[in-house]
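P.,

For your records, the input lines for the assembly:
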Amino acid sequence: MKTTAAAAPALLYGPGVGASVTLVTIGGLLVVCGVYLLLGQSLTRLVLGMILAGNGINLLLMADAGPAGAPALLGPRVRSATGRVLPITDPLPQAMILTAIVITLSMTAFLLALAYRTWQVTGDDQVQDDVEDRRIALKARRADLKADLRERKAQYRADRRTVLARSRERRRELRESVGQARAELRARVRLQRAVAARAEDFEFIEDAAQSDTDFQPAPPRPDRD
Amino acid sequence: MDEIVPLPVLLPLLAVGAKFIIGPRRPQLQGTISMLVLIADTVISIVLLVWADRHGPLVVQIGGYGAPMGISLVVDRLSGLMIAVSSVVTLAVLIYSQSQGSDEEDAGAPLAVFYPAYLIMVAGVADTFLAGDLFNLFVGFEIMLTASYVLMTVGGTRDRIRSGAVYIMVGIASSLLFMAAIAVTYAAAGTVNLAQLAERLGHLPANIRLAINLLLFVVFAVKAAAFPLSAWLPDSYPTAPAPVTAVFAGLLTKVGVYCVIRTQTLLFPDRQLRGVMLVVAGLSMLLGIAGAVAQADLKRLLSFTLISHVGYLFLGIALGSVRALAGALFYAAHHITVQTSLFLVTGLIERREGTGDIGRISGLARAAPILAVLFFLPAMNLAGIPPFSGFLAKLVLLQAAAADGHAAALTLLAAALLTSLLTLYAMAKVWSRAFWRDRDEAGAPGEHQVVLPGGAGVSVVVRRGSRGAIGIGGQRLARSESYPPGMLAATCALVVVSLGFTVWAGPITAFTQRAAVELGDRDVYISAVQRASGLSGLPALPTAQVPVAPTAPSAAAQARGGGR
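C-alpha cells returned:
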C-alpha cells in the first residue's frame, strides 16, 4: 500500500498522516458513484446510491486509522516482516465504522420497505415531485402555452394583414384591368358605331350614287379617337 | 448528580423495550408507561437545567472511560435549556396524540408503531442535546431521524409515502454528509470529542478548518431548514399526522439550530462563516415568509413561517455577540413552544372542519371560541405583537443587530422587521378568513354555491387540491365537533407555557444571557470535560509542525482567510 507519509505536515494530530491512498481513492470513487445514483428518482437507485456512498465514507474513516498495525488485543507482541514491533491500529475509526454500518443497514431495510410500499400504492418506485413543484411546472406550462398562443395570434394577424394587402392589390389590379377592358370595349363599340354610321352614310351615298356614279367614299379611319 | 444525566436518553429507550415486552394487548398500561417516562424526563431535565445554571456544566463519561475514547455527555446551560423545553413540548404532544389515538382506535387504526417510534425520537433528541462528542451527536441525530422517518410515513398512505420519500432521502443525504464530515474531522484532528476538537481545531490551517466548518454547517442547516436547504420542509411536514407535524416543526428544526450554535461557538469561534450565515438568515426570513403569504393551507402556511423564523435564529448566531446569542436562545425556546402549539391548534381545527384550507373554513370565532382563543394567542405571539415573548425575543435580536452596526447587520434588521410584519399579515389573513368571516359568506365548508344557467342554485363540494384531515393511522378523520379532553388540555397547556415565556421574560432573558456568556467563554466547557475525563490540557503536540500559535489562532486564520 502506498502511503502519504510526508504529504501533509498540516495534519497535526490525526492518524491522517500515513493514510492509505488506495483506501482514499476507492472510498472517493464509491462516494462519486453513490452520489450519481442518489441523483436519480427511482427509490431502488436511491437505496443503491446510499449503500455505495455509505460504504465509501466508511472506507474514508478506515483510512483515518492510518497504516495497518497490530490487532488491539495482541498488542505489541506482533512484529512486522522486518521484525519491527507494530503499534496497534487506532481502534476508534473501527468503532465508528461499525456503528455506521449498523445505521446504513437499518436505513437500507427501511428504504426497501418504503420502495415496496411505494410500488404497492403507485405501481412504481419513483419519488414523485412535490405539490409545489407540480404547481410551478403547471404554471410554467401554462405560461408556455400562453406565449405560444400569443405568438400564433400575432402570426395570424400579420398573415391576415399581408393577405388583405395582397387581395386589395389584386382587386385594384382587377379594377384597373376591368377599366382598361371597359375602355377598350367602349372604344371598339364607338368605332363600330362610327363604322356603322359611315356604312349608313355609304349606303346613302350608294343610293345616291345610283344617280351620281362618279362619287367615291373615303375608307373609314381606324384611329378615330 | 451526575448519575441522572443519561436518564433523558435511557428512560424512553427502556420504556420502548418495556412496551414490546408488555405487548399490544394492554394499551392502557403502555400509555401510562409513556406518560410516566416523559413526566420523569421533564422533571429530570428541569433539574438538570437548574443544576447546570447554578453549578456549571455537568459532565458524565459513560462507563468511566476518559474523553478521547469514552463518550462524554455534557449539560451546560444551552443544552439544559434545549432539553428542558423539548421535554415539556414532547410531553404535551404525547398527551395530545394519546388522546387523538385513543379516539381513533375505535376506528380500528393501527397505532402499534406510533408511540414506540415517538419515544425513540425523544431519546434521540435528548442524546443530540447531551452529546459531548461529534460522533455521539451523529448517533443521536440518526436515532432521532430514523424514528422520524417512521413517524412521517406511519399509516403508509399515498400522500405520506410520497412526501415521506422526499423527507427520508434528504435526511439520508445529510446523514451521509455528516459521516463524511466526521471522517474529515477525525483525519484532521484525530479526535471527535467536542472539547478536544475545540482545542485542536484552532491549530489547524484555516482552509482545513473552513472545510470542516462548511461540511458541518451544511449538515445542520439541512436539518434546521435554512433557506437554500429548506425545500423539503413545506412539502413533507403537512402530510404527517397533526401531533407529528407539531413536534417536528417545533423541535427537530431546533435540533439543527442547536447543533449550529454548539459548533459555531465551541469549535469555530473565529466565525469564518459569518457572511454566509447572514445571507442564509436574510434569505430564509424573506423567502420563507413570502412562501407563507402565498399559501392557503394552514399547515403549509405554518411550515413556511417556520422557515422564515429559523432565519431569526441564524441571524442571532451569525451576529455572534453575547446579546445576539442570548436573543437567539430566547427566540429558540419561545419558538419551539409557539410553533408546536400552533400546529396542535391546527390539528384541532382540521378535526373540527375536516380541512385545513382557510378558503373553506369560516366563522370559527363564533362557532368555536375556544379554538379562536387558542389560535389567536400563539399567532400574535409568533408575529411578535408587543406584550408577547415573540416581541421581546425579536427586540433583543434587533438590538443586537443594531449594536453590531455593520451594514449587513442593518440590512438584516430591516429584513427582520419586514418579515415580522409579513408574519402578522399572514396570521391576520388566517384570522380574518377562518375565524371572522361569516359562515354564510363562504357556505358550508367544502361547498360552493353554483348557479346553473337555468337559474337553479346547486351546491357542489369542491376539493381544491388540499387534503382533508388525515388521522395518525392514515385514515380519513371523521369530522367531530367535540374535542377529546386530552387534546384540548395539551394544547391549552402549551399555549399557557408559551405565555409563561412572556410573564417570566425577565428571569428567562437573564438566564439566556448567562447561557450566552457561557457559550462565549469556551474554557468553561472545555475545562469541565477535561476535569471529568482526567485529561489535562492538550496531549503532546508535534510542536515543530505547529503553524499557528495556540493563543491567537483566529487572528492568523482571519488574516490568511482575508488575503484570499
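Two observations worth noting. The CA atoms of residues 118 and 125 of chain A lie 5 Å apart. Chain A touches chain B at residues 9-16, 19, 31, 34, 38, 43, 46, 50, 53-54, 57-58, 60-61, 63-64, 92-93, 96, 99-100, 103, 106-107, 110-111, 114, 117-118, 121-122, 127-128, 130-132 (CB under 8 Å).

Regards
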